[in-house]
C-alpha cells in the first residue's frame, strides 16, 4: 500500500528495533491513551513478541499489523492494526493506531487509517471496522471523522487506560 506521503507494510522481525525506538520516544506522550504495560514491553524482545503475535494473528486471520512508513525515507512513523477479527455474519475488526508525536498533525494518521480501511474492505473482505477513542483525544476523533467513520455512541468505562477505566466514543465504518 502506498501513497504520496506514506505507505503501510506488515511489520516484520527486522522492524523490531525501529518499533522499540518509536515506542520509547513516544512513551510519555502516549501513556495517557494506553494501558499500563509491563516493562518487558519496552524491550527489543517485547517488540519481537508483538511482531510475532501479529504474524501469528494474520496466519489465523485474527489480526493484521502494519507499520506506517515515510515513503521518501522508509522511516517508521507509526503503527496501525486490525485486531479481533470476527468472520461469519459479522465480518468486523477493531482498529488501533498511533503516529510518532513529532509527525502528528500532518495528515499521516488519516492517510494510514484510510489505507488500512481500504485494505480491510478490498483485500481481506471485511464489512465493518470499529474504533474506540477517549473523548479527550480530539485529534484521534478528527482522524476517524476525516477517514469517513461515523459516531455510534459512548461506551462507559470501556477500557482500562493508564490505570483508570475510561469512557470511549465508538466509531465505525462499513464497506458501503
UniProtKB/TrEMBL annotation:
A Pfam family reported for this protein in Swiss-Prot or TrEMBL: Acetyltransf_3
Ranges in coiled-coil conformation: none
Gene3D superfamilies: 3.40.630.30
Occurrences of domain N-acetyltransferase (ranges): 6-176
Keyword vocabulary terms for this entry: Acyltransferase, Transferase
InterPro entries per record: Acyl_CoA_acyltransferase, GNAT_dom, N-acetyltransferase
Spans traversing the lipid bilayer: none
Lineage: superkingdom: Bacteria
Entry's family note: Belongs to the acetyltransferase family. RimJ subfamily.
Protein name listed in UniProt: GNAT family N-acetyltransferase
Native species: Paenibacillus planticolens
